[in-house]
Design a protein that fits this description.
This protein has 15 helices and 15 strands. The strands form five sheets. A five-stranded parallel β-sheet has the order 5-4-3-10-11. The chain is of the alpha/beta class. Helix 4 crosses helix 7 and helix 12 packs antiparallel against helix 13. Strand 14 and strand 15 form a beta hairpin. Bound molecules: adenosine monophosphate (AMP) and zinc ion. Adenosine monophosphate binds next to helix 1 and strand 10. Adenosine monophosphate (AMP) binds next to helix 1 and strand 10.
Length: 470
């Protein structure tokens, strides 16, 4: 049985699906006005491992992820500039072109990281009627009010508000420095924003300027666009029904976004949106936040451009428990890539997997996953088994491929698949060896580069050279 840490109850609990044998998961997806960075990808890797672990235990998982493709404001407090508009100005493209471009880039990153496709990938812009219907229910239940710039959720009318972050709304209010505008309480949030409050567009420019919204819809309250949080309440309800089993996201979602999702579903339907709330800790760098202005924000493509295998990043993420901060460095990525290469090389020479595995290691591996997805422990068990020459390699291969259904390292391309080194590459390696012996290191380096250009890495070994796939 799985035990998961539930942010809502602040405890590790046994996990019981609502309908035995099936699990509904909703993962908050990316906002697509820019490339996802590797920190974002950590949150999605976590959700992928969760889903794979449940599937390997025989659960039928319905995994829903949203794409926030409608413009939102640059801060959580319903203020600031619209992110999609910022991107439009930066790139001279339409809002829909921007969303389509970055959605495509995101899906490519998911594939490169072996993150399995969602059962349903739901776009906010394709679910406007569902969002409007939900706001109407909230309004009917007396929990919404109108200001000159939009419809707001009245959090003071929901006694349970604040349960996820454990902060009473009065405490939040005390700490809040947000410009309240016409909001009645600091924690109130927009359900629907009008395109042109007071005759001006939402970002302060006149209606007829180039910044006119391209994403706006008619609604019972006036032309406008949904607030950030409503899409997740509306789409999770549509695709999973409420309550559903597990809601995931990064820890930054706890105090505002997920708190507000819970409020909306309670406000509209009177039920808790999801039973279990799981949040991945942040990827940090040099102990601090990653940010574009500090120049320490990387995309997956940046890592590829620096010569790293995307799966080395997946491996790095698996090495840390999802509830601990992960301090990213290129040294750590390099070490992860080396470990991954070592693993691939070791298993190449194994016998073809047979139908029986290594029961004792499997119990420990799955035990680690069942304990709140302890992937670092699971990886350690996998390595222990890999190095246990007392077990037939065919049995280790069988077990490792089962493990890999959760780890997602793509090991089926390596287990029992000896590397075929072309004769020409062997000859180049011999020449390099001779150059080294003659202390002609420039020539040795040139030959190494030529070998690399053919897709192989030559390394020094005690008895000459070793070659592995690049
Ligand atoms: P966003 O596109 O900003 O909505 O973020 C997508 C996901 O990435 C959310 O689940 C965030 O919580 C998560 N996230 C953002 N920054 C980081 C980070 N540095 N490390 C880990 N996850 C992050
Ligand atoms: Zn969400």
């Amino acid at each position: 049985m799985f035990h998961f840490y539930n942010t809502l109850t602040r405890s590790k609990e046994p996990f019981t699906p609502i309908v035995p044998g099936t699990v509904g998961i909703y993962a908050c997806g990316p906002t697509v006005y820019w490339f996802a960075h590797i920190g974002n990808m950590r949150a999605f890797l976590f959700a992928d491992v969760l889903r794979r672990a449940l599937e390997l235990e025989g659960m039928d998982v319905k995994f829903v992820m949203n794409i926030t493709d409608v413009g939102h404001l640059t801060d959580d407090g319903d203020a600031g500039e619209d992110k999609m508009l910022v991107a439009m100005r930066r790139e001279g493209k339409s809002a829909y072109e921007i969303a389509a471009f970055y959605t495509e880039a995101f899906l490519k990153d998911l594939e490169r990281l072996h993150i399995e496709p969602a059962s349903a990938l739901t776009r906010a812009t394709e679910h406007i009627p569902e969002q409007i219907a939900m706001i109407e229910e909230i309004e009917r239940n007396g929990l919404a009010y109108r200001t000159s710039d939009g419809m707001y959720f009245d959090t003071s009318k929901l006694p349970a508000y604040g349960q996820l972050s454990g902060q009473a709304s009065s405490e939040k209010l005390a700490g809040a420095r947000v410009d309240m505008g016409e909001k009645r309480h600091a924690t109130d949030f927009a359900l629907w924003k009008f395109s042109y409050p007071n005759g001006r567009s939402f970002d302060g420019a006149q209606d007829d300027t180039a910044s006119q919204r391209q994403m706006e819809w008619e609604s019972p309250w006036g032309k406008g666009f949904p607030g950030w949080h409503i899409e997740c309440s509306a789409m999770s309800k549509k695709y999973l029904g409420v309550p559903f089993d597990i809601h995931t996201g990064g820890i930054d979602h706890i105090p505002v976004h997920h708190e507000n999702e819970i409020a909306q579903t309670l406000g509209a339907d009177g039920v808790l949106e999801a039973n279990v709330w799981m949040h991945a800790e942040f990827l940090i760098m040099h102990g601090g936040k990653m940010s574009k202005s500090l120049g320490n924000l990387f995309t997956l493509q940046d890592l590829v451009d620096k010569g790293y295998d995307p799966i080395a990043y997946r491996y790095l993420v698996l090495q840390a428990h999802y509830r601990t901060k992960l301090d990213f460095s290129f040294e750590a990525l390099e070490a992860a890539q080396n470990a991954l290469h070592r693993l691939r090389n070791v298993v190449r020479d194994w016998d073809a997997p047979v139908d029986t595995g290594c029961a004792e290691y499997e119990v420990r591996f799955f035990g680690a996953l069942q304990d709140d997805l302890n992937t670092s422990q699971a990886l350690a068990v996998a390595w222990e088994m890999v190095g246990d020459d007392g077990q037939p390699s065919a049995a280790r291969g069988h077990a490792l491929l089962r493990f890999d259904r959760v780890l997602g390292l793509g090991l089926d391309a390596y287990v029992s698949r000896p590397l075929e080194i072309p004769r020409a590459v062997r000859a180049l390696a011999d020449l390099r060896e001779q150059a080294r012996a003659a202390h002609d290191f420039a020539e040795a380096d040139r030959l190494r580069a030529e070998i690399l250009s053919r897709g192989f890495v030559v390394e020094d070994a005690t008895d000459g050279w070793k070659i592995r796939a690049a």
